[in-house]
Amino acid sequence: MSRLAVITALRASDLGAAVDDLTAYLARCGFAVGERVADADAILVWADERLPDDVIADLQSSSVPVLFGGATLEAHLDRPAMADAAGVVAGRATPRHEIRLRTEPGGDEIIVTDRWLELDKTLDDVEVLATAMTGLATHAVMTWRPATHVGLLTTGTEPATLRDPRVQRLIHRWLRRALGVSDGPPIRVGILGYGAIGHEHSAAIAAVDGLVLAGVCDKSPERIAAARTLAPDVTAYDDGDALLASPDLDLVVVSTPPNTHAEWALRAIAAGKHVVVEKPFCLTTAEADEMIAAASAAGRSISVYQNRRWDADYLTVKRLIRSCAIGEVFHYESFVGGYGHPCNFWHSDEEVSGGAVYDWGSHFLDWILDLLPQPVASVTAAAHKRRWYDVTNADHSRVTIAFDDGAEAEFVHSDLAAAMKPKWYVLGTEGAIVGHWRHERVVSRSAIGTLVEDPLAASESPARITLHAPDGSVTDVAIAPAPRVPFHRELADHLLSGAPMSVTAAGSRRNISVMEAATASAREGGRPVVPL
Fold first, then answer.
1. Are residues 274 and 331 in the same domain?
2. Backbone angles phi, psi at 296, to 5 degrees
3. Whole-angstrom distance, CA of residue 164 vs CA of residue 111
4. d(Cα 44, Cα 59) in Å, to the nearest integer?
5. Domain range for residue 149?
6. CB–CB of 167/23 below 8 Å?
7. How far is residue 218 CA from its own chain's centroid?
8. Which residues are within 8 A (CB) of 103 and not within 5 positions of it... i.e. 6 or more apart?
9. How far apart are CA 478 and CA 179, in angstroms?
10. 351 and 249 co-located in one domain
11. What is the pLDDT of residues 244-285, one digit of tens each?
12. Is 358 helix (H, G, I), strand (E, B) or coil?
Protein backbone atom coordinates (compact mmCIF):
# COMPACT_ATOMS: atom_id res chain seq x y z
CA MET A 1 0.00 0.00 0.00
CA SER A 2 1.47 3.36 -1.07
CA ARG A 3 1.60 6.13 1.51
CA LEU A 4 0.21 9.53 0.46
CA ALA A 5 0.94 12.74 2.37
CA VAL A 6 -1.66 15.47 1.91
CA ILE A 7 -0.70 19.07 2.66
CA THR A 8 -3.22 21.92 2.54
CA ALA A 9 -3.14 25.68 3.12
CA LEU A 10 -6.65 26.85 2.29
CA ARG A 11 -8.65 29.87 3.30
CA ALA A 12 -11.94 28.39 2.10
CA SER A 13 -13.36 25.71 4.40
CA ASP A 14 -15.62 24.32 1.66
CA LEU A 15 -12.56 23.71 -0.55
CA GLY A 16 -10.86 22.00 2.38
CA ALA A 17 -13.88 19.71 2.74
CA ALA A 18 -13.65 18.90 -0.99
CA VAL A 19 -9.96 18.01 -0.59
CA ASP A 20 -11.03 15.69 2.23
CA ASP A 21 -13.51 14.04 -0.17
CA LEU A 22 -10.74 13.65 -2.76
CA THR A 23 -8.38 12.05 -0.26
CA ALA A 24 -11.17 9.75 0.94
CA TYR A 25 -11.54 8.58 -2.67
CA LEU A 26 -7.78 8.01 -2.91
CA ALA A 27 -7.92 6.03 0.33
CA ARG A 28 -10.56 3.80 -1.27
CA CYS A 29 -8.13 3.37 -4.17
CA GLY A 30 -5.68 1.81 -1.72
CA PHE A 31 -3.53 4.75 -0.56
CA ALA A 32 -2.65 5.13 3.12
CA VAL A 33 -3.34 8.85 3.61
CA GLY A 34 -1.48 10.90 6.21
CA GLU A 35 0.39 14.18 6.69
CA ARG A 36 4.02 13.17 7.30
CA VAL A 37 6.17 14.07 4.29
CA ALA A 38 9.09 12.03 5.60
CA ASP A 39 7.11 8.77 5.46
CA ALA A 40 5.34 9.36 2.14
CA ASP A 41 5.69 7.61 -1.18
CA ALA A 42 3.89 10.54 -2.87
CA ILE A 43 2.72 14.00 -1.81
CA LEU A 44 -0.42 15.95 -2.75
CA VAL A 45 -0.40 19.70 -2.07
CA TRP A 46 -3.48 21.92 -2.30
CA ALA A 47 -3.09 25.57 -1.30
CA ASP A 48 -4.53 28.97 -2.06
CA GLU A 49 -2.12 30.80 0.23
CA ARG A 50 1.59 30.64 0.97
CA LEU A 51 2.90 27.45 2.54
CA PRO A 52 5.11 27.86 5.63
CA ASP A 53 8.85 27.99 4.93
CA ASP A 54 9.54 24.73 6.77
CA VAL A 55 6.96 22.90 4.63
CA ILE A 56 8.54 24.31 1.47
CA ALA A 57 11.92 23.11 2.69
CA ASP A 58 10.55 19.61 3.35
CA LEU A 59 9.04 19.47 -0.12
CA GLN A 60 12.27 20.65 -1.76
CA SER A 61 14.28 18.00 0.06
CA SER A 62 11.85 15.21 -0.75
CA SER A 63 12.65 12.79 -3.57
CA VAL A 64 9.12 11.35 -3.95
CA PRO A 65 6.49 12.51 -6.50
CA VAL A 66 4.75 15.76 -5.60
CA LEU A 67 1.56 17.06 -7.25
CA PHE A 68 0.81 20.75 -6.71
CA GLY A 69 -2.91 21.24 -7.31
CA GLY A 70 -5.45 24.04 -7.43
CA ALA A 71 -4.01 27.53 -6.89
CA THR A 72 -0.79 26.24 -5.26
CA LEU A 73 1.56 27.37 -8.03
CA GLU A 74 -0.31 30.67 -8.40
CA ALA A 75 0.14 31.36 -4.67
CA HIS A 76 3.90 30.84 -4.98
CA LEU A 77 4.75 32.72 -8.18
CA ASP A 78 7.12 34.91 -6.18
CA ARG A 79 9.08 31.73 -5.44
CA PRO A 80 10.24 30.62 -8.91
CA ALA A 81 11.76 27.42 -7.53
CA MET A 82 8.34 25.71 -7.66
CA ALA A 83 7.73 26.56 -11.33
CA ASP A 84 11.35 25.73 -12.17
CA ALA A 85 11.03 22.30 -10.56
CA ALA A 86 7.81 21.68 -12.51
CA GLY A 87 9.54 22.78 -15.73
CA VAL A 88 6.98 25.42 -16.68
CA VAL A 89 6.62 29.12 -17.32
CA ALA A 90 3.42 30.40 -15.69
CA GLY A 91 1.12 32.81 -17.49
CA ARG A 92 -2.04 34.54 -16.31
CA ALA A 93 -4.82 33.23 -14.12
CA THR A 94 -8.12 32.99 -16.00
CA PRO A 95 -11.51 34.11 -14.66
CA ARG A 96 -13.90 31.42 -13.47
CA HIS A 97 -15.51 29.84 -16.55
CA GLU A 98 -16.40 26.53 -18.18
CA ILE A 99 -13.24 24.55 -18.83
CA ARG A 100 -12.97 21.57 -21.16
CA LEU A 101 -10.10 19.42 -19.98
CA ARG A 102 -8.85 17.02 -22.60
CA THR A 103 -6.91 14.06 -21.31
CA GLU A 104 -4.63 11.60 -23.09
CA PRO A 105 -5.92 10.07 -26.35
CA GLY A 106 -8.80 7.76 -25.58
CA GLY A 107 -9.46 9.48 -22.25
CA ASP A 108 -12.23 11.73 -21.07
CA GLU A 109 -13.21 15.25 -21.98
CA ILE A 110 -13.90 16.66 -18.53
CA ILE A 111 -16.08 19.76 -18.31
CA VAL A 112 -15.81 21.76 -15.08
CA THR A 113 -16.57 25.33 -14.08
CA ASP A 114 -13.44 26.70 -12.45
CA ARG A 115 -10.45 28.98 -12.95
CA TRP A 116 -6.94 27.91 -13.87
CA LEU A 117 -3.42 29.21 -14.24
CA GLU A 118 -2.28 29.16 -17.83
CA LEU A 119 1.13 27.68 -18.53
CA ASP A 120 2.78 29.57 -21.37
CA LYS A 121 5.62 27.07 -21.75
CA THR A 122 6.60 23.57 -20.69
CA LEU A 123 10.13 22.16 -20.99
CA ASP A 124 10.79 19.27 -23.33
CA ASP A 125 11.13 16.76 -20.48
CA VAL A 126 7.67 17.59 -19.08
CA GLU A 127 4.89 15.11 -19.83
CA VAL A 128 1.54 16.83 -20.52
CA LEU A 129 -1.36 14.68 -19.31
CA ALA A 130 -4.28 17.10 -19.72
CA THR A 131 -4.83 20.33 -21.64
CA ALA A 132 -7.34 23.15 -22.04
CA MET A 133 -7.70 25.93 -24.58
CA THR A 134 -7.85 29.69 -24.28
CA GLY A 135 -8.77 31.20 -27.61
CA LEU A 136 -6.73 29.29 -30.17
CA ALA A 137 -3.92 28.35 -27.79
CA THR A 138 -3.66 25.00 -26.02
CA HIS A 139 -2.17 25.03 -22.54
CA ALA A 140 -1.02 22.24 -20.28
CA VAL A 141 -3.25 21.83 -17.22
CA MET A 142 -1.83 18.61 -15.75
CA THR A 143 1.87 17.79 -16.02
CA TRP A 144 4.49 15.36 -14.70
CA ARG A 145 8.24 15.92 -14.81
CA PRO A 146 10.06 12.67 -14.01
CA ALA A 147 13.47 14.36 -13.67
CA THR A 148 12.37 16.39 -10.64
CA HIS A 149 9.40 14.24 -9.45
CA VAL A 150 7.10 17.29 -9.69
CA GLY A 151 3.69 17.62 -11.33
CA LEU A 152 0.96 20.23 -11.58
CA LEU A 153 -2.80 20.41 -11.83
CA THR A 154 -3.41 24.11 -12.36
CA THR A 155 -7.17 23.98 -11.80
CA GLY A 156 -9.23 22.75 -8.85
CA THR A 157 -10.11 25.93 -6.99
CA GLU A 158 -13.82 25.01 -6.81
CA PRO A 159 -15.17 22.26 -4.51
CA ALA A 160 -17.31 20.81 -7.32
CA THR A 161 -14.18 20.20 -9.40
CA LEU A 162 -12.52 18.09 -6.71
CA ARG A 163 -15.74 16.15 -6.19
CA ASP A 164 -16.11 15.36 -9.90
CA PRO A 165 -15.44 11.59 -10.24
CA ARG A 166 -13.59 12.17 -13.51
CA VAL A 167 -11.20 14.66 -11.87
CA GLN A 168 -10.68 12.27 -8.96
CA ARG A 169 -9.91 9.53 -11.49
CA LEU A 170 -7.44 11.85 -13.28
CA ILE A 171 -5.54 12.51 -10.04
CA HIS A 172 -5.48 8.81 -9.21
CA ARG A 173 -4.08 8.05 -12.67
CA TRP A 174 -1.40 10.75 -12.15
CA LEU A 175 -0.32 9.17 -8.86
CA ARG A 176 -0.03 5.72 -10.41
CA ARG A 177 1.96 7.09 -13.32
CA ALA A 178 4.29 9.04 -11.01
CA LEU A 179 4.81 5.98 -8.80
CA GLY A 180 5.60 3.83 -11.83
CA VAL A 181 2.61 1.53 -11.33
CA SER A 182 1.38 0.01 -14.58
CA ASP A 183 -2.04 -1.47 -15.22
CA GLY A 184 -1.00 -4.79 -16.70
CA PRO A 185 -2.69 -6.55 -19.63
CA PRO A 186 -6.25 -5.63 -20.67
CA ILE A 187 -9.25 -7.35 -19.12
CA ARG A 188 -10.69 -9.87 -21.59
CA VAL A 189 -14.49 -9.65 -21.55
CA GLY A 190 -17.12 -12.16 -22.59
CA ILE A 191 -20.80 -11.25 -23.05
CA LEU A 192 -23.28 -13.97 -22.08
CA GLY A 193 -26.48 -13.18 -24.00
CA TYR A 194 -26.21 -10.64 -26.82
CA GLY A 195 -29.63 -9.02 -26.56
CA ALA A 196 -30.72 -5.42 -26.94
CA ILE A 197 -27.95 -4.15 -24.64
CA GLY A 198 -25.17 -6.15 -26.32
CA HIS A 199 -24.16 -3.44 -28.78
CA GLU A 200 -23.94 -0.91 -25.94
CA HIS A 201 -21.48 -3.09 -24.02
CA SER A 202 -19.49 -3.92 -27.16
CA ALA A 203 -19.08 -0.28 -28.21
CA ALA A 204 -18.15 0.80 -24.68
CA ILE A 205 -15.56 -1.97 -24.32
CA ALA A 206 -13.99 -0.89 -27.61
CA ALA A 207 -13.81 2.72 -26.38
CA VAL A 208 -11.99 1.97 -23.10
CA ASP A 209 -8.29 1.26 -22.77
CA GLY A 210 -7.88 -1.77 -20.56
CA LEU A 211 -10.91 -3.71 -21.82
CA VAL A 212 -11.14 -5.97 -24.86
CA LEU A 213 -14.13 -7.98 -26.09
CA ALA A 214 -12.91 -11.57 -26.41
CA GLY A 215 -16.09 -13.65 -26.50
CA VAL A 216 -19.83 -13.50 -27.17
CA CYS A 217 -22.34 -16.25 -26.39
CA ASP A 218 -25.86 -16.45 -27.80
CA LYS A 219 -27.97 -19.27 -29.22
CA SER A 220 -29.19 -17.01 -32.03
CA PRO A 221 -26.96 -16.90 -35.15
CA GLU A 222 -28.54 -13.56 -36.00
CA ARG A 223 -27.35 -12.07 -32.70
CA ILE A 224 -23.86 -13.47 -33.18
CA ALA A 225 -23.84 -11.83 -36.62
CA ALA A 226 -24.97 -8.56 -35.01
CA ALA A 227 -22.13 -8.80 -32.48
CA ARG A 228 -19.62 -9.25 -35.30
CA THR A 229 -20.69 -6.01 -36.97
CA LEU A 230 -18.82 -4.23 -34.15
CA ALA A 231 -16.25 -6.92 -33.30
CA PRO A 232 -15.58 -8.97 -36.46
CA ASP A 233 -12.93 -11.22 -34.88
CA VAL A 234 -14.69 -12.00 -31.61
CA THR A 235 -14.88 -15.68 -30.60
CA ALA A 236 -18.49 -16.88 -30.70
CA TYR A 237 -20.14 -19.47 -28.47
CA ASP A 238 -23.62 -20.98 -28.54
CA ASP A 239 -23.28 -22.61 -25.11
CA GLY A 240 -22.91 -20.65 -21.88
CA ASP A 241 -20.84 -23.32 -20.15
CA ALA A 242 -18.32 -23.21 -22.98
CA LEU A 243 -17.99 -19.45 -22.58
CA LEU A 244 -17.44 -19.76 -18.82
CA ALA A 245 -14.86 -22.53 -19.32
CA SER A 246 -12.75 -20.44 -21.68
CA PRO A 247 -9.30 -19.61 -20.25
CA ASP A 248 -9.20 -16.60 -22.56
CA LEU A 249 -11.75 -14.61 -20.54
CA ASP A 250 -11.26 -12.66 -17.30
CA LEU A 251 -14.74 -11.16 -16.92
CA VAL A 252 -18.25 -12.16 -17.97
CA VAL A 253 -21.17 -9.78 -18.55
CA VAL A 254 -24.33 -11.69 -17.58
CA SER A 255 -26.98 -10.33 -19.94
CA THR A 256 -29.56 -13.09 -19.64
CA PRO A 257 -33.18 -12.60 -18.38
CA PRO A 258 -33.36 -11.45 -14.72
CA ASN A 259 -34.62 -14.72 -13.24
CA THR A 260 -31.37 -16.37 -14.41
CA HIS A 261 -28.93 -13.66 -13.30
CA ALA A 262 -28.02 -15.29 -9.99
CA GLU A 263 -27.54 -18.74 -11.52
CA TRP A 264 -25.20 -17.55 -14.27
CA ALA A 265 -23.32 -15.10 -12.05
CA LEU A 266 -22.59 -17.84 -9.49
CA ARG A 267 -21.42 -20.19 -12.23
CA ALA A 268 -19.14 -17.48 -13.65
CA ILE A 269 -17.63 -16.79 -10.23
CA ALA A 270 -17.08 -20.53 -9.72
CA ALA A 271 -15.25 -20.52 -13.07
CA GLY A 272 -12.89 -17.85 -11.74
CA LYS A 273 -14.35 -14.89 -13.62
CA HIS A 274 -15.10 -11.36 -12.53
CA VAL A 275 -18.78 -10.58 -13.18
CA VAL A 276 -20.91 -7.68 -14.37
CA VAL A 277 -24.63 -8.39 -14.09
CA GLU A 278 -27.28 -6.56 -16.07
CA LYS A 279 -29.93 -4.80 -14.00
CA PRO A 280 -31.82 -5.85 -12.02
CA PHE A 281 -29.04 -7.52 -10.03
CA CYS A 282 -31.35 -10.48 -9.29
CA LEU A 283 -34.87 -11.03 -7.91
CA THR A 284 -34.31 -11.63 -4.17
CA THR A 285 -31.99 -10.42 -1.42
CA ALA A 286 -31.08 -14.05 -0.73
CA GLU A 287 -29.72 -14.32 -4.28
CA ALA A 288 -27.86 -11.00 -3.89
CA ASP A 289 -26.28 -12.13 -0.63
CA GLU A 290 -25.21 -15.44 -2.17
CA MET A 291 -23.59 -13.74 -5.16
CA ILE A 292 -21.77 -11.15 -3.02
CA ALA A 293 -20.52 -13.81 -0.62
CA ALA A 294 -19.35 -16.06 -3.45
CA ALA A 295 -17.45 -13.20 -5.16
CA SER A 296 -15.81 -12.19 -1.88
CA ALA A 297 -14.75 -15.75 -1.09
CA ALA A 298 -13.30 -16.21 -4.59
CA GLY A 299 -11.56 -12.82 -4.64
CA ARG A 300 -13.58 -11.81 -7.70
CA SER A 301 -15.32 -8.53 -8.48
CA ILE A 302 -19.09 -8.35 -8.97
CA SER A 303 -20.99 -5.26 -10.06
CA VAL A 304 -24.26 -4.26 -11.75
CA TYR A 305 -24.58 -2.28 -14.98
CA GLN A 306 -26.67 0.62 -13.65
CA ASN A 307 -26.11 2.60 -16.82
CA ARG A 308 -28.69 5.28 -16.05
CA ARG A 309 -26.69 6.48 -13.05
CA TRP A 310 -24.96 8.65 -15.66
CA ASP A 311 -28.03 9.99 -17.49
CA ALA A 312 -27.41 13.69 -18.08
CA ASP A 313 -30.66 14.83 -16.46
CA TYR A 314 -30.19 12.60 -13.42
CA LEU A 315 -26.63 13.90 -12.94
CA THR A 316 -28.09 17.42 -12.98
CA VAL A 317 -30.64 16.57 -10.29
CA LYS A 318 -27.92 14.86 -8.26
CA ARG A 319 -25.63 17.87 -8.53
CA LEU A 320 -28.38 20.20 -7.34
CA ILE A 321 -29.23 17.98 -4.38
CA ARG A 322 -25.60 17.34 -3.42
CA SER A 323 -24.84 21.09 -3.52
CA CYS A 324 -27.81 21.75 -1.19
CA ALA A 325 -29.44 23.96 -3.84
CA ILE A 326 -32.85 23.16 -2.29
CA GLY A 327 -31.67 22.53 1.27
CA GLU A 328 -32.51 19.23 2.93
CA VAL A 329 -34.63 16.90 0.77
CA PHE A 330 -37.67 15.57 2.62
CA HIS A 331 -40.12 14.67 -0.20
CA TYR A 332 -39.27 13.02 -3.52
CA GLU A 333 -41.60 11.82 -6.30
CA SER A 334 -40.70 10.17 -9.60
CA PHE A 335 -42.77 8.80 -12.47
CA VAL A 336 -42.35 6.95 -15.73
CA GLY A 337 -44.94 5.65 -18.18
CA GLY A 338 -47.88 6.71 -20.32
CA TYR A 339 -50.95 5.09 -21.78
CA GLY A 340 -50.23 2.10 -23.97
CA HIS A 341 -49.72 -1.64 -24.15
CA PRO A 342 -46.53 -2.89 -22.45
CA CYS A 343 -43.94 -4.66 -24.54
CA ASN A 344 -44.54 -8.33 -25.30
CA PHE A 345 -41.00 -9.41 -24.43
CA TRP A 346 -39.89 -10.94 -21.11
CA HIS A 347 -39.88 -7.47 -19.50
CA SER A 348 -43.67 -7.86 -19.13
CA ASP A 349 -43.57 -11.42 -17.78
CA GLU A 350 -43.58 -11.23 -13.98
CA GLU A 351 -42.05 -14.67 -13.52
CA VAL A 352 -39.06 -13.76 -15.67
CA SER A 353 -38.63 -10.04 -14.95
CA GLY A 354 -39.71 -9.95 -11.32
CA GLY A 355 -42.64 -7.71 -12.21
CA ALA A 356 -43.26 -4.09 -13.11
CA VAL A 357 -41.44 -2.79 -10.02
CA TYR A 358 -38.23 -4.54 -11.14
CA ASP A 359 -38.38 -3.18 -14.69
CA TRP A 360 -38.15 0.62 -14.46
CA GLY A 361 -37.65 0.38 -10.70
CA SER A 362 -34.17 -0.94 -11.41
CA HIS A 363 -33.38 2.61 -12.51
CA PHE A 364 -35.81 4.90 -10.70
CA LEU A 365 -35.52 3.24 -7.29
CA ASP A 366 -31.75 3.03 -7.74
CA TRP A 367 -31.77 6.81 -8.24
CA ILE A 368 -33.78 7.32 -5.05
CA LEU A 369 -31.41 5.18 -3.01
CA ASP A 370 -28.35 6.86 -4.52
CA LEU A 371 -29.69 10.32 -3.65
CA LEU A 372 -31.04 9.37 -0.22
CA PRO A 373 -28.47 7.10 1.44
CA GLN A 374 -30.06 7.19 4.92
CA PRO A 375 -31.55 3.92 6.26
CA VAL A 376 -34.93 2.78 4.94
CA ALA A 377 -37.59 2.34 7.64
CA SER A 378 -40.30 0.66 5.55
CA VAL A 379 -41.70 0.18 2.05
CA THR A 380 -45.34 0.18 0.96
CA ALA A 381 -46.66 -0.52 -2.52
CA ALA A 382 -49.77 -1.01 -4.62
CA ALA A 383 -50.27 -2.75 -7.98
CA HIS A 384 -53.25 -2.60 -10.36
CA LYS A 385 -54.24 -5.05 -13.08
CA ARG A 386 -56.99 -3.24 -15.01
CA ARG A 387 -56.55 -3.59 -18.76
CA TRP A 388 -53.54 -5.43 -20.21
CA TYR A 389 -54.51 -8.99 -19.29
CA ASP A 390 -52.32 -10.64 -21.94
CA VAL A 391 -49.18 -9.80 -19.95
CA THR A 392 -48.50 -10.65 -16.31
CA ASN A 393 -46.82 -7.44 -15.11
CA ALA A 394 -49.02 -4.95 -13.28
CA ASP A 395 -50.52 -2.18 -15.42
CA HIS A 396 -49.88 0.45 -12.75
CA SER A 397 -47.65 0.28 -9.67
CA ARG A 398 -46.65 2.63 -6.87
CA VAL A 399 -43.78 2.24 -4.39
CA THR A 400 -43.40 4.49 -1.35
CA ILE A 401 -40.23 4.48 0.76
CA ALA A 402 -40.15 5.87 4.29
CA PHE A 403 -36.69 6.69 5.62
CA ASP A 404 -35.56 6.65 9.24
CA ASP A 405 -35.15 10.43 9.35
CA GLY A 406 -38.73 11.08 8.17
CA ALA A 407 -37.95 11.74 4.49
CA GLU A 408 -40.22 9.99 2.00
CA ALA A 409 -39.93 9.00 -1.64
CA GLU A 410 -42.44 7.68 -4.17
CA PHE A 411 -42.04 5.99 -7.54
CA VAL A 412 -44.94 5.38 -9.93
CA HIS A 413 -44.70 3.26 -13.08
CA SER A 414 -47.86 3.21 -15.18
CA ASP A 415 -49.06 1.94 -18.53
CA LEU A 416 -52.49 3.48 -17.80
CA ALA A 417 -51.39 7.12 -17.43
CA ALA A 418 -53.26 9.17 -20.01
CA ALA A 419 -51.84 12.21 -18.19
CA MET A 420 -48.19 12.07 -17.18
CA LYS A 421 -46.78 13.34 -13.92
CA PRO A 422 -43.33 15.04 -13.89
CA LYS A 423 -40.35 12.75 -14.09
CA TRP A 424 -39.13 14.28 -10.82
CA TYR A 425 -40.82 16.42 -8.18
CA VAL A 426 -38.42 17.01 -5.29
CA LEU A 427 -39.06 19.25 -2.30
CA GLY A 428 -36.36 20.55 -0.01
CA THR A 429 -36.33 22.92 2.94
CA GLU A 430 -35.09 25.76 0.68
CA GLY A 431 -36.63 25.07 -2.71
CA ALA A 432 -37.77 22.44 -5.20
CA ILE A 433 -36.64 20.63 -8.34
CA VAL A 434 -39.01 19.57 -11.13
CA GLY A 435 -38.07 17.34 -14.05
CA HIS A 436 -40.38 17.94 -17.02
CA TRP A 437 -40.83 15.21 -19.63
CA ARG A 438 -39.94 16.23 -23.17
CA HIS A 439 -42.00 14.93 -26.09
CA GLU A 440 -39.75 14.90 -29.14
CA ARG A 441 -40.24 13.59 -32.67
CA VAL A 442 -37.59 12.05 -34.92
CA VAL A 443 -37.87 13.52 -38.41
CA SER A 444 -36.65 11.56 -41.44
CA ARG A 445 -37.55 10.81 -45.06
CA SER A 446 -39.35 7.77 -46.39
CA ALA A 447 -37.99 5.65 -49.25
CA ILE A 448 -39.77 7.93 -51.74
CA GLY A 449 -38.62 11.14 -50.06
CA THR A 450 -41.73 12.12 -48.10
CA LEU A 451 -41.54 13.43 -44.54
CA VAL A 452 -41.76 10.85 -41.76
CA GLU A 453 -42.18 11.81 -38.11
CA ASP A 454 -41.87 9.21 -35.38
CA PRO A 455 -42.55 10.07 -31.74
CA LEU A 456 -39.59 9.38 -29.46
CA ALA A 457 -40.49 7.78 -26.15
CA ALA A 458 -40.34 10.43 -23.45
CA SER A 459 -38.16 8.13 -21.35
CA GLU A 460 -35.43 8.34 -24.01
CA SER A 461 -35.14 12.14 -23.89
CA PRO A 462 -33.43 13.97 -21.00
CA ALA A 463 -35.96 15.84 -18.90
CA ARG A 464 -35.99 19.64 -18.69
CA ILE A 465 -34.93 20.56 -15.15
CA THR A 466 -36.26 23.62 -13.33
CA LEU A 467 -35.11 24.93 -9.96
CA HIS A 468 -37.81 26.64 -7.87
CA ALA A 469 -36.82 29.14 -5.18
CA PRO A 470 -38.91 30.08 -2.09
CA ASP A 471 -39.60 33.54 -3.59
CA GLY A 472 -41.39 31.96 -6.56
CA SER A 473 -38.62 32.43 -9.09
CA VAL A 474 -37.96 29.55 -11.49
CA THR A 475 -34.64 28.82 -13.20
CA ASP A 476 -34.08 26.48 -16.13
CA VAL A 477 -31.00 24.48 -15.21
CA ALA A 478 -28.46 23.72 -17.92
CA ILE A 479 -27.82 20.01 -18.44
CA ALA A 480 -24.21 19.12 -19.15
CA PRO A 481 -23.49 16.27 -21.57
CA ALA A 482 -23.28 12.85 -19.99
CA PRO A 483 -19.77 11.40 -19.63
CA ARG A 484 -18.65 8.94 -22.27
CA VAL A 485 -18.84 5.21 -21.31
CA PRO A 486 -18.34 6.00 -17.59
CA PHE A 487 -19.30 2.60 -16.19
CA HIS A 488 -16.84 0.72 -18.36
CA ARG A 489 -14.05 3.23 -17.59
CA GLU A 490 -14.68 2.70 -13.88
CA LEU A 491 -14.74 -1.05 -14.42
CA ALA A 492 -11.33 -1.01 -16.12
CA ASP A 493 -9.85 1.21 -13.40
CA HIS A 494 -11.34 -0.97 -10.68
CA LEU A 495 -9.94 -4.21 -12.04
CA LEU A 496 -6.58 -2.86 -13.20
CA SER A 497 -5.74 -0.30 -10.51
CA GLY A 498 -8.06 -0.88 -7.57
CA ALA A 499 -10.12 2.30 -7.98
CA PRO A 500 -13.59 2.15 -6.38
CA MET A 501 -16.73 1.97 -8.49
CA SER A 502 -19.73 4.27 -8.15
CA VAL A 503 -22.10 1.31 -8.38
CA THR A 504 -21.34 -1.23 -5.67
CA ALA A 505 -22.78 -4.69 -5.15
CA ALA A 506 -23.92 -3.61 -1.69
CA GLY A 507 -25.80 -0.66 -3.20
CA SER A 508 -27.44 -2.90 -5.78
CA ARG A 509 -28.39 -5.34 -3.04
CA ARG A 510 -30.11 -2.44 -1.22
CA ASN A 511 -32.17 -1.75 -4.34
CA ILE A 512 -33.18 -5.42 -4.60
CA SER A 513 -34.23 -5.41 -0.93
CA VAL A 514 -36.55 -2.44 -1.56
CA MET A 515 -38.04 -3.98 -4.72
CA GLU A 516 -38.57 -7.30 -2.96
CA ALA A 517 -40.25 -5.52 -0.04
CA ALA A 518 -42.44 -3.53 -2.47
CA THR A 519 -43.54 -6.73 -4.23
CA ALA A 520 -44.50 -8.28 -0.89
CA SER A 521 -46.35 -5.13 0.22
CA ALA A 522 -48.39 -4.93 -3.00
CA ARG A 523 -49.27 -8.61 -2.72
CA GLU A 524 -50.44 -8.08 0.88
CA GLY A 525 -52.67 -5.06 0.30
CA GLY A 526 -50.16 -2.31 0.97
CA ARG A 527 -48.85 -3.53 4.33
CA PRO A 528 -45.61 -1.70 5.30
CA VAL A 529 -42.66 -4.06 4.87
CA VAL A 530 -39.18 -3.57 6.35
CA PRO A 531 -36.56 -4.44 3.70
CA LEU A 532 -34.20 -7.30 4.54
1. no
2. -65, -45
3. 9
4. 10
5. 3-178
6. no
7. 28
8. 109, 110, 129, 130, 142, 170
9. 39
10. no
11. 999 999 999 999 999 999 999 999 999 999 999 999 999 999
12. helix
